[in-house]
Write a structure and sequence with these properties.
Largest sheet: 2 strands, antiparallel
Radius of gyration: 23 Å
Strand order of the largest sheet: 1-2
Helix content: 25-40%
Structural class: alpha+beta
Number of strands: 2
């Protein structure tokens, strides 16, 4: 993709940036590298009981304890 350079610089189309809220611009020799950074929009949960409440019911593959035991047997 070729972009027009103006007096203000280069405008990068938003579709190339995805959900990124900021980018990092790195200049190396004759290259300019633009990397996206992801902002963590999920608030950390410090209360274990709240975490359990928010994740309850997300496992949809049957009995989770049976699954864990089966997987752990494969590790041995």
């Amino acid at each position: 993709m070729k972009l027009k350079v103006t007096e203000e610089g280069v405008l990068i189309p938003k579709e190339l940036l995805g959900d990124s809220q900021e980018v990092e611009v790195i200049q190396e020799a004759e290259k300019i590298i633009i990397t996206t950074t992801q902002v963590n929009l999920i608030e950390p949960i410090s209360d274990f009981d709240t975490l359990l409440d928010k994740t309850q019911g997300i496992w949809t593959k049957g009995n989770s304890l049976d699954y864990q035991q089966k997987i752990r047997e494969e590790w041995s």
